[in-house]
């Protein structure tokens, strides 16, 4: 399984910026988990191949690249782009994004060959299939309903937190499975902003340490994503100074498991 943390922007030399404003992970060039930077960072091949997008929650930074992704693909689609989300997420997209005010209601507009956007509801705790993967959604603590995921193919699995504060359930579900090869977790804020992190439903290095501490020594490797760009330096330093075995994932890099 090939996993790419999509960049949110690029430096003047074309390299991926480390500043990650818009969460989006692409798996094997054909499944997107969150759509923050999807339309802005995907390759032409990914734009053509990705037809399933799993969304963790409705916050703008996780859906920002979705409208343009549908728009970019509109004329070439032979079938709809499928957006997988909870009922709350799909309602939020219908009511607040694809509502003919903020953006066209693409669920009701067809190209020459048929529908271009389909919403598919999943239930937390009930695994579903998308793009050839089995996806297990886990409820995580955040502002409003939010999901983390374990995504598996016939060989391996990865766990992705989405946005979350301390959520024992996420780590125990990961621990209960014997096929998870890597965990991608958020860690948005430095410890000095612990109150803000708690209020906004995010982790800091200290709260992440509290969660990871429960994992056994042979647990899969943990990669940190979604660090708020303004605090990246402090978060990376605090993670390095901690006893945790974590690696900060680099936008643009492809990780294979
Ligand atoms: Zn969020």
Q: How would you portray this structure in words?
A:
By secondary structure, this protein is an alpha/beta fold. The chain has one domain: Metallo-beta-lactamase, Chain A. About 25% of the residues lie in helices and about 25% in strands. The strands form three sheets. It has a seven-stranded mixed beta sheet. A hairpin with a 7-residue loop joins strand 10 and strand 11. The radius of gyration is 18 Å and the shape is globular. The mean pLDDT is about 95. Bound molecules: zinc ion (ZN). Zinc ion binds next to loops.
Looking at the structure, the CATH topology is Metallo-beta-lactamase, Chain A
Hetero ligands: zinc ion
| Coarse structural class | alpha/beta
Shape: globular
Extract low-pLDDT stretches.
none
Q: Give the rounded overall mean pLDDT.
A: 97
Q: Beta-sheet strand percentage?
A: 15-25%
Topology, pairings included?
Layout: E1 2-5, E2 25-27, E3 31-33, H1 38-41, H2 44-49, E4 52-54, H3 60-63, H4 66-73, E5 81-85, H5 87-96, E6 110-111, E7 114-115, E8 117-121, E9 128-130, E10 133-139, E11 147-152, E12 157-160, H6 168-176, E13 180-186, H7 194-200, H8 205-212, E14 222-225, H9 232-241, E15 246-248, E16 254-256
Parallel strand pairs: 3-4, 4-5, 5-8, 12-13, 13-14, 14-15
Antiparallel strand pairs: 1-2, 1-16, 2-3, 6-7, 9-10, 10-11, 11-12
Zinc ion is lined by residues 57, 59, 142, 163.
Which labels suit this protein?
seven-stranded mixed sheet; binds zinc ion; alpha/beta; globular; 257 residues; Metallo-beta-lactamase, Chain A
Summarize the structure.
The chain has 257 residues and is α/β, with parallel strands linked by helices. It has helices at residues 38-41, 44-49, 60-63, 66-73, 87-96, 168-176, 194-200, 205-212, 232-241; strands at 2-5, 25-27, 31-33, 52-54, 81-85, 110-111, 114-115, 117-121, 128-130, 133-139, 147-152, 157-160, 180-186, 222-225, 246-248, 254-256. It contains nine helices and 16 strands.
